[in-house]
């Protein structure tokens, strides 16, 4: 098996029908001609597969009229023949962005450590198989897709990756810094790793990604950088201070980079998701905390449906949480030529949850 940083892995509706709508469709549903080539049919896919469960219980999903729906060719702005790099792309929001880019015409390099990151992570690690699945889905849209296993805490590995992408693809147009871990631990109970590893991966890793790839964009005098923050970076979060601090820091980093890189026609913006159902958030502690944020304290371990039912009424669009494919269309816009004059901006995708914040 290749080690992180080794380079490319070349193998690389109705209410009742909601689950079917978002279920991954094997060969794709033919809807028309895709952007990449007339011979490639458009598809509609849910990037993270399904159905999603926790402890044998299904994870509720937004109904069709309150969701961006699954990835499909042409639902965003054109990225035809752009070359994009996405970190944390083995699954979740990173995968959704990578596949959405491909659906809109881009070739995509998916970067992920695809293995354990830290003891200070409440989610199961992504796997090489997860990363390979992202590449497979990219290719389903007729675009070139390849993967690199790399640790974003290792800037030397990222610089090596940047050189490899530029060499093999000819250029880099778009960089998405998405990789992150999440930790729920009260400040008074934290081990050093609970704080340091979260900051090192989320904030320093995002900075490393920018520092490694931005020179490639600057040299061409054009490009797009998109970072992933979180609504937890816009406000404090009980028992998740390291995560909130890392995501708040990303916003300051983004705005500073936007000021510095503007002279080179490189834009830098942040996507700020609300609560999204991914492997990063799909565990019992997160469900309990989502209910606690609404003033409920479950006596035991809540089911996903119970957590949804408590949280949904507090959100503008009346959904408990979003799907990764609800976040990715905004990234497509920010990566496109249509966003030429957008930089230093924060785009919140929260189903209205952010309407409660000042």
Notes on the protein architecture:
- The protein is α/β, with parallel strands linked by helices and 358 residues long.
- 35% of the residues lie in helices and 13% in strands.
- The strands form three sheets. It has an eight-stranded mixed beta sheet with strand order 1-8-7-6-9-10-11-12, with helices on both faces. A two-stranded antiparallel sheet has the order 2-5.
- Helix 2 (92-103) packs parallel to helix 3.
- The longest helix has 29 residues, at 192-220.
- Mean pLDDT is 85; it is low at 1-42.
Tags for this entry?
alpha/beta, 12 strands, 358 residues, 8-stranded mixed beta sheet, 35% helix
Give the arrangement of secondary structure elements.
Layout: E1 8-9, H1 18-22, E2 44-45, E3 53-54, E4 57-58, E5 71-72, E6 83-87, H2 92-103, E7 107-112, H3 128-140, E8 145-149, H4 155-169, E9 174-177, H5 192-220, E10 223-228, H6 241-261, E11 266-273, H7 284-292, H8 304-311, H9 324-335, E12 346-349
Parallel strand pairs: 6-7, 6-9, 7-8, 9-10, 10-11, 11-12
Antiparallel strand pairs: 1-8, 2-5, 3-4
Overall pLDDT metric: 85
Task: Encode the helix/strand succession as letters.
Answer: EHEEEEEHEHEHEHEHEHHHE
Q: Structural class, from helix and strand content?
A: alpha/beta
Please state how the strands of the largest beta sheet are arranged side by side.
1-8-7-6-9-10-11-12
SS strand fraction: 5-15%
Measured as a percent range, the helix fraction is: 25-40%
Q: Would you report the number of β strands? A: 12
Radius of gyration: 19 Å
The DSSP helix count reads 9
User: Quick one: biggest sheet?
Assistant: 8 strands, mixed
Uncertain runs = 1-42
> What is the molecular shape?
globular
End-to-end span in angstroms? 49 Å
């Amino acid at each position: 098996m290749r080690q992180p940083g080794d380079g490319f892995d070349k193998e690389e509706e109705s209410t009742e029908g909601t689950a079917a709508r978002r279920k991954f469709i094997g060969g794709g549903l033919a809807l028309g001609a895709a952007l990449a080539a007339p011979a490639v049919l458009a598809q509609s896919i849910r990037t993270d597969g399904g159905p999603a469960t926790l402890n044998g219980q299904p994870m509720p999903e937004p109904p069709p009229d309150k969701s961006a729906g699954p990835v499909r060719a042409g639902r965003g702005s054109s990225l035809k023949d752009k070359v994009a790099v996405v970190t944390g792309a083995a699954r979740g929001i990173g995968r959704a962005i990578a596949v959405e880019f491909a659906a809109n015409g881009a070739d995509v390099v998916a970067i992920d450590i695809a293995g354990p990151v830290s003891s200070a992570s409440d989610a199961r690690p992504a796997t090489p198989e997860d990363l390979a699945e992202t590449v497979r889905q990219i290719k389903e849209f007729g675009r070139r897709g390849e993967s690199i296993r790399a640790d974003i805490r290792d800037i030397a590995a990222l610089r090596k990756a940047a050189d490899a992408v530029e060499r093999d693809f000819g250029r880099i147009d778009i960089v998405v810094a998405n990789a992150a871990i999440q930790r729920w631990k009260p400040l008074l109970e934290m081990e050093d790793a609970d704080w340091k590893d979260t900051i090192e991966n989320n904030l320093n890793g995002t900075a490393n990604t920018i520092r490694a790839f931005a020179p490639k964009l600057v040299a061409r005098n054009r490009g797009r950088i998109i970072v992933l923050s979180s609504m937890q970076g816009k406000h404090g979060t009980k028992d998740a201070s390291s995560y909130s601090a890392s995501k708040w820091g990303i916003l300051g980093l983004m705005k500073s980079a936007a000021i510095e890189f503007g002279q080179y026609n490189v834009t830098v913006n942040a996507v700020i998701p609300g609560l999204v159902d991914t492997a990063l958030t799909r565990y019992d502690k997160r469900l309990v905390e989502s209910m606690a944020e609404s003033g409920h304290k479950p006596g035991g371990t809540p089911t996903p449906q119970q957590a949804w039912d408590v949280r949904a009424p507090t959100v503008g669009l009346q959904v408990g949480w979003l799907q990764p494919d609800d976040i990715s269309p905004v990234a497509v816009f920010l990566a496109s030529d249509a966003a030429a004059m957008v930089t230093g901006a924060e785009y919140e995708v929260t189903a209205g949850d952010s309407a409660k914040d000042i």
